[in-house]
Amino acid sequence: MKYTIRKCVDEQDFGTKARTVFLNAVYSSRYYPGAPDTPCRVILPTGNTPLPFYAALRDMASDVPPFEYCQLDEYIGLSQGDARLFSEQLAKLVLNPLKISSRMIFNSCADPLEEVSRIRDWHLKNGPADVAVLGIGENGHVGFNEPGAKFHDRANIVTLEKSTLEANNAYGNGPVPERAITLGLGDLLLARETILLVRGAKKADILAHALFGAVTESVPASYLQNYTGKLTIVADEAALAKLPSRILVPS
Ligand code: GLP
Question: Quick check: 158 and 127 in contact, CB under 8 A?
């Protein structure tokens, strides 16, 4: 694991630092002589953590280059327009304001097995993401890869843990479905660059474990220690508080 940590002093700093890291990743993946002429493929997370990042992107929407959005995870069984849909939330927060029209969205209403097969085929055909922006759950989940997910998993159907349901019910859009589709850790391992966004003291223990504890499928985010792409962690001081003392994080 080769990583860089960007420490943030407040929400605004978090937003602008995450935006800088993201824009560098997008530019460096496509805007160089001989780069592929397909748009940069980007995975984006939901949740509270990335909100300052999305606000920072909206602030300079006209300067963000076009990219192709590829969905990370979605609940099963919600109708189009439902406020609980991650695709709806991301459309409002970032994709519509940035006028990103190229979107690989999961169909929450489709037959889940057929949808997973469609998503797997799409990823096989189109190749891995260029930039995976991710959050982390308090139980170490990434996307909806709950503890026990396999490091080699591709897109699959998951049953959410009680703690994940509680955390996501608290977003205030109503009770969320118990089943979801997520890209697998095997898909995320292939991303060329990963940006992990982490905020708050309640994420400090799991962040320390993910990066420096045992590599185990019971802590899905510990897959990052096997990751060979470029990894940047953008985190506030509270989230970094439990890192081993030997890890020096520049201000
Ligand atoms: C959700 C999402 C994840 C997200 C995580 C953390 O369940 N599926 O993609 O990273 O929870 O959310 P928060 O940032 O609100 O803590």
Answer: no
